[in-house]
Amino acid sequence: MQCEFQRRSRLGGVLAALFLIAAACSAQEQPANAQPADEEYRVYEAVLKLMDTIPKEDPHVAIYDRTLTSQCAAEGDNPVLAKGCTFLWVKPDTDADVERTLRRRFRGLHRSTWKNFKANNASSVTLHDPISAPWKHKITGAYKPAEVSGEWASPDMTIYLSRVGFNSKNDSKKKEAIVYVLVFSYVGRMATTGDYLRFLLGADKQWTLAGRVSYLVRDNDLVVSLLPFAEWK
Question: How many domains would you assign to the chain?
C-alpha cells in the first residue's frame, strides 16, 4: 500500500501528518530484505552532513526507512507518491528528461552512474541505524500511528532517500555517485524540496559534493517539475 501526497496543502494541520500517515501506509507492504551497500551509507552521511543549518534549536528529523523507487502505485512499493507515481521524475517528466537535465548540469556525468541509479531504484530497500547525522534523528518505518509518541510525535522534518547510483569500476575517472533527496520540512513555513546531488570521492576517501540540481518547487500547492530548466540552489 502506498500513500500519495500530490498537494502540499494536505500536509497541513498536524505537523506530524506525513510522518504518521506514511508509516501507517507502509505497514502492509512486504518487508524489504535487501540492504544498501556500506558505501551508500557513506554517501547518505555526506548528504546529512550538508544539512547542518536547520533553523531550529535541537531539531528532530525523521529519516524514512524505505528508499524511494521509480515505480508507480500499481507497480511497486514506493513509500510516497507524486501524482500517483514516483518523485524521482514527476509526471509528465520521464527518466530520460531527468537524465538530460543532469547531464547538462553535471558536466562529465558518467553514463554508468545514471544506469546504476536507475537499476538500484527499481525497488525499495530498508535503511537502518547507525547512520551519522548532525542532529537528533530517528529511522521511521512500518508501524501504527498510535506507536508514535513523545518527542517524535511531531518531527521537524522528514527525509526520504533514494538508492545511490555509482559509476562503473571500469571508468578511469574519479569515483562518482548521485542520490535523490526528498525533504518535507515543517520548520516555519511548510516546504517540500527534491534535489539531485552529485558526489565525487576524493583522495582522502571522503565523498564531496560536486553539484546540486533542485528538481521540485511549490506552485499553487502542487508539487511540480522544473524540467527542462532545473535550477541550481
Answer: 1
Question: How far apart are the C-alpha atoms of 133 and 58, rounded to whole Å?
Answer: 12
Characterize the bridge pairing of strands 60-64 and 136-140: parallel
Cα–Cα distance measured from residue 1 to residue 14, given in angstroms and rounded to the nearest whole number: 22
User: Domain of 122?
Assistant: 8-225
Q: Using 50, 70 and 90 to split pLDDT, how confident is the model at 222?
A: very low
Residue 182, SS3 per DSSP: strand
Q: What is the pLDDT of residues 92-109, one digit of tens each?
A: 899 999 999 999 999 999
Tell me the average pLDDT across 118-130: 92
Residue whose C-alpha is closest to residue 128's, from 214, 55, 35: 35
What's the grid cell of residue 109?
556525468
Alpha helices in 176-228 (DSSP H): none
- 140 domain-assigned: yes
pLDDT exceeds 60 at position 120? yes
Distance CA(23)–CA(148), nearest Å, equals 10
